[in-house]
Design brief:
Blueprint lengths: L1 H28 L3 H14 L2 E12 L21 E13 L2 E8 L10 E7 L3 E8 L2 E9 L12 H7 L9 E10 L7 E7 L2 E11 L5 E9 L2 E10 L11 E10 L8 E15 L18 E4 L5 E4 L5 E3 H5 L5 H28 L2
Parallel strand pairs: 6-14
Antiparallel strand pairs: 1-2, 1-13, 2-3, 3-4, 4-5, 5-6, 7-8, 8-9, 9-10, 10-11, 11-12, 12-13, 14-15, 15-16
């Protein structure tokens, strides 16, 4: 009798699970790319100004040549992941502007000399600044174009949540996008696409249609190989129109080669203690302007040209500041004197030759 009841309970549970799965799959089958775009457009409009703060810690596999190409048949001897220092990060987004600041969590006595890293995008130029205390030790600018540092810092999830359609900051290529239902009880869908004007890397995203198509997991591929993956968890969302609040995410970077195509974990970053604030536009707008002291050396990323920060935050050519060139009439007189000296030498040589005849 007891076994019969157990069999009935299992049968009912199986039928209920199958029913839920069928309902979810039917719901997913009816969705389209336009549904995703509409939900994301609404979310971007509701989060035009957003600020996030979190702490993160990365663990990295020491290279020591173990992740390089190995001869076939030879096994890797890579050691375990080593934890790095804990970081405090603040990210601010206002429309297409971005400000990202990272600092190492240290005792108060060491904070004045702590290293900070800063990324700024003002809708035109991208800046990367490293400071030791108050002194900028590295300054790189990428003038014009899209924001280019998204691959180097852990902001993929915030951009996917609050700026997925923004062509300057992230921008998915919808001309290559495809949508597939996932046969799961949650009713997730799989979005496959690439970045706008950057088709070398493709993305596969598991999205939750019932919560505004928020990304649950993301896998990034290059040449068909897994390069990175992202896993996300959120606070409870009341409905599809509510803004998502992430509570934790993990970003993993992998390495592979022609000799060893199986992806191996290179680095893992865990993000937690997240606090999200939505604020009116033009709040603290000054943070989106790069501020460097006069005389700071700045490198142009595209051309490798070197500049010096002048007054009023204007970049000046390095040679003009360090080794001023002579310009105007003074420069013309210098060339004229050199020409006259050359003529005198030639005339002197000619006279000497005639006198010897």
């Amino acid at each position: 009798m007891w076994q019969l009841r157990q069999m009935r309970v299992r049968t009912i549970a199986t039928l209920l699970g199958a029913t839920i799965t069928c309902i979810s799959c039917t719901f997913a089958d009816d969705l389209s790319l336009d549904d995703i775009r509409a939900a994301w457009i609404n979310r971007e409009a509701a989060a035009m100004s957003v600020s996030l703060k979190w702490s993160s810690r990365s663990t990295r596999t020491p290279l020591h040549g173990t992740l390089m190409a190995l001869p076939k048949g030879k096994k890797s001897t890579q050691s375990s992941l080593q934890p790095g220092p804990e970081m405090q990060v603040q990210l601010s987004l206002q429309e297409s502007r971005l400000h990202w600041l990272q600092k190492i969590i240290q005792p108060p006595s060491q904070q004045p000399s702590a290293e900070t890293r800063e990324y700024i995008y003002d809708e035109i130029d991208s800046w990367f600044i490293v400071r030791k205390g108050a002194t900028a030790t590295t300054s790189v600018v990428n003038r014009g174009g899209r924001f280019w540092m998204w691959k180097t810092i852990d902001i993929r999830l915030p951009l996917l949540l609050y700026r997925p359609l923004n062509q300057k900051l992230f921008g998915l290529d919808w001309s290559q996008a495809t949508l597939e239902p996932l046969r799961s009880e949650e009713g997730y869908v799989l979005l496959k696409t690439a970045l706008h004007n950057y088709a070398a890397e493709t993305f596969e995203m598991e999205l939750d249609p019932q919560r505004g198509f928020i990304p649950i997991s993301v896998r990034q591929y290059g040449a068909g190989r897994l390069n990175a993956e992202l896993e996300c968890k959120y606070a409870p969302i009341l409905d599809a129109t509510s803004l998502p609040l992430p509570v934790h995410w993990t970003w993993r970077v992998f390495f592979s080669s022609d000799e060893n195509p199986s992806p191996r974990l290179l680095e893992e970053t865990r993000v937690e203690n997240i606090r999200v604030e939505f604020a009116p536009l033009n709040v603290n707008a000054n943070i989106f302007v790069a501020k460097l002291s006069e005389g700071t050396v700045v490198q142009e990323r595209n051309t490798d040209d070197i500049f010096i920060m002048g007054t009023n935050q204007k970049l000046l050519p390095y040679r003009r500041v360090v080794r001023p060139t002579v310009g105007g009439w003074a420069e013309r007189w210098a060339w004229l004197l050199m020409a006259l000296a050359l003529l005198v030498v030639v005339a002197f040589v000619c006279v000497r030759r005639r006198s010897h005849r």
